[in-house]
Design a protein that fits this description.
Elements lengths: L2 H7 L6 E2 L5 H12 L11 E5 L2 H8 L14 E7 L6 E2 L2 E2 L1 H18 L3 E5 L4 H8 L6 E11 L8 H8 L27
Antiparallel strand pairs: 1-7, 2-3, 3-7, 4-5, 6-7
Helix pairs in contact: 1-4, 2-4, 3-5
The chain binds flavin mononucleotide.
Flavin mononucleotide binds next to strand 6.
Length: 192
Amino acid sequence: MDVKDALNARRAYRAFDPVEISDNIIKELADAASLAPSCFNNQPAKLIFVKNKEQLEKTMTALNKGNEWAYKDSMIIAVLAKKDFDCVIKDRLYYLFDTGIAVGNLLLRAVELGLAAHPIAGYSPEKTKEALSIPDEFEVVTLINVGKKGNDMSALSDWQKEQENNRPARLPAENRYSIDRYDEKLNVRPAR
Ligand SMILES: Cc1cc2nc3c(=O)[nH]c(=O)nc-3n(C[C@H](O)[C@H](O)[C@H](O)COP(=O)(O)O)c2cc1C
């Protein structure tokens, strides 16, 4: 699969079927994340692959309302980072930026491995830390829900069903990029 195909195939799917998570899958995902660039090669992204049934169930207690679809996960990847482990250049903090690139790599490799991998912000960091014994000094940047794309949408709300079949629209090109200089058309966010 080439990069363009993986970019097109990656979706934040919510209808999951179970999938066997082998040690090799974990290694492949971790290696893909590790190849991301980071400021001074600081590699701030730390990953906890949660696949044990009991640990998964504990971690699922951290999910917010609206993310019940994730109860069908075969694995949750808790992504941690610490501000001090990466570049701080005056008021520019790079730990979340570098962690995001690593997650982007991981998501694309997951596509190539035939997995659905969906990052979320809708969870309690406190409950996640408690479930996985994560020290307080780390931030839980995202939880990545991993399964195999399925067809059972019974756990999905109407808008989630709509998004399952149709990728949410992107901003028009003029609101995403400009050439040679800033354009005030960039100064918008998607309508809610
Ligand atoms: C940081 C982040 C937080 C997100 N949080 C949630 C979430 O809590 N629940 C959810 O169902 N989807 C969540 N998503 C998925 C986005 O809604 C989804 O990526 C977006 O609508 C674009 O759809 P696509 O990824 O299928 O192209 C999140 C994605 C990101 C990157």
